[in-house]
Write a structure and sequence with these properties.
Layout (H helix, E strand, L loop, with lengths): L3 H14 L4 H13 L2 E5 L6 H11 L4 E5 L6 H5 E6 L4 E6 L6 E5 L6 H13 L1 E4 L2 E4 L5 E6 L12 H4 L2 E6 L5 H8 L14 H12 L5 H13 L5 E2 L2 E2 L1 E3 L3 H17 L7 H12 L4 E2 L1 H5 L4 H11 L4
Length: about 300
């Protein structure tokens, strides 16, 4: 497969910079190669910003970070038209969103107007300033972070925006050996170097899209999606309030192809679909209030669906 050597080198470099997060890096690379937006969910201090910066350097992509706060304005992100008294005219000032990789740090701390400003950019890869629309750089990928245990000073992300994230990836703590290596500063010994370039990402995306997926596997993906939209009784309780959209089916298909590609396969198997299923669906399904009260989690739902939907 094309780019195999460079991709292996990229994974090695990122694993040396971010210790003890091999699964995370695999999933992030799936999102980057498929050019989908990524939501990282974790408590502070697990190297999310370091990972985003290392990715940008490794891929020779521009990188900007925005700290989301309750007083953030849409113009702080996309830009605005500024009046210049010298020539009595309006001039466009472009915001931080004009970059290849945008780190939206603590995205759930900003109000609805700011979240809405991101929707057009995430879906259409363009923004509107005044009466004019401007295309964003290609690729344009949002890597957002959210602390799932915070409850004060945060806003719930709208379902429409959550649906724009191809993957939601929960980060776990590193194991003991990795944390000791972090204390010894071993992660600082590996400064990221350019390995892939932007134009190569387009080639990789095309290779991913050309990975063979049998009609039976497509039918399996659709069956999993449709299973979230109907009645699902767990412990005698209707567990689901809202299922996933067709966009989730598309993202699951593309993520499964990217997973297969990343593991040097030229076809998608049901096991590839199940590997990426939690990262594509977990943030998109809405649990019923009764299920939440019983402590049923999205992962419980997905485990149940994986058992109920026949594997081709």
């Amino acid at each position: 497969m094309p780019h195999t050597h460079k991709i292996a080198k990229l994974k090695t470099q990122l694993n040396a910079c971010i210790l003890g997060q091999e699964k995370l890096i695999d999933m992030v690379l799936i999102g980057i190669f498929a050019q989908g937006h990524i939501l990282l969910e974790s408590v502070p201090g697990l190297a999310k910003t370091t990972l985003a910066k290392a990715l940008a350097k490794s891929l020779e992509l521009s990188f900007k970070r925005i700290q989301f706060t309750p007083d953030l304005l849409p113009s702080d992100i996309i830009g605005a038209q500024i009046y210049n008294p010298k020539d009595s005219d309006l001039h466009t000032r472009f915001g931080a969103i004009f970059t290849h990789i945008l780190l939206a740090d603590e995205i759930n701390r900003a109000p609805a107007k700011v979240q809405s400003a991101l929707l057009e950019a995430m879906q259409e890869h363009q923004v509107t300033i005044g009466e004019d629309s401007y295309l964003l750089p290609s690729p344009f990928i949002v890597i957002a972070t959210a602390n799932p245990i915070e409850s004060e000073g945060v806003y719930a992300l709208p379902e429409a925006q959550l649906d724009r994230f191809m993957l939601a990836i929960p980060l776990s703590y590193p194991d003991s050996a990795s944390e000791i290596a972090i204390l010894q500063g071993k992660h600082h010994a590996h400064e990221p170097k350019p390995i892939l370039q932007a134009y190569e990402l387009d080639s990789i995306r095309q290779s991913i899209e050309s990975v063979y997926c049998d009609e039976s596997v497509y039918a399996y993906i659709v069956a999993l999606s449709q299973a979230t939209r109907g009645e699902l009784l767990i412990e005698g309780t209707q567990a689901l309030r809202l299922g996933v959209s067709p966009r989730a089916s598309l993202d699951l298909s593309l993520a499964a192809k990217a997973y297969a590609f990343l593991h040097a396969k030229d076809y998608v198997s049901p096991s590839d679909v199940l590997e990426v299923l939690p990262f594509v669906f977990s943030h998109r399904i809405l649990l019923s209030f009764e299920a939440i009260g019983r402590g049923i989690s999205p992962q419980t739902i997905l485990d149940e669906l994986s058992q109920r939907v026949p594997i081709p």
